[in-house]
Amino acid sequence: MSDAGAGGRLGGELDGFRIGYVPAGVGDLVTDFATEWDDVRFVSRVWERETAEGAWVDLRVHVLRGDRLATLADLRDFLAGYHERDADDPSLAEFHVGDAAGLIGPSEAFWLVAPGVGIDVIANPEAADSQELATVAQAILPLAG
User: Fold this and answer.
1) From which domain of life does this come (predicted)?
2) SS3 for the chain, per residue?
3) Whose CA, among 25, 62, 67, 112, lies 20 to 30 Å from 42?
């Protein structure tokens, strides 16, 4: 994919995936990091922008890997614990990235790529609305190979 679409840009490669779209409203300060929580390994990319109050996080993409992420329900429950929220969030609706089933809400989309591998995308609504969040998610694809 050479073109990120109108008003967007490419997000690069992250732990075996290509981020094919980053909304124009997302800041240019980009940081990658890796961590582990409750036997799940995260490789993350964060986009920020400077404001008068300091740095503001606009977009986060996390690639999660762990045996406990066997199903979409496992991923949903894991993320609920990680983000300290209700696993039965009524704002989440079903959606798909290719053949992979996921859930999407106003500012977060996540899906199970394969057993043990999930993606979690969180967008600041001031930088990317729910439609752009869905576009970001749809543009995160495994690298060929």
Assistant:
1) Bacteria
2) CCCCCCCCECCEEECCEEECCECCCCCCEEEEEEEEECCEEEEEEEEEEEECCEEEEEEEEEEEECCCCCCHHHHHHHHHHHHCCCCCCCCCEEEEECCEEEEECCCEEEEEEECCEEEEEEECCCCCCHHHHHHHHHCEEECCC
3) 25
pLDDT of residue 65: 98
Tokens describing residue 56: 């503001």
pLDDT for the residue 6: 58
Q: Two tokens at 37?
A: 């929580």
Reported as a single tens digit per residue, the pLDDT across 8-39 is: 799 999 999 999 999 998 999 999 999 999 99
CA separation for the pair 118, 2 (Å, rounded): 25
Q: Maximum CA pair distance of the chain?
A: 44
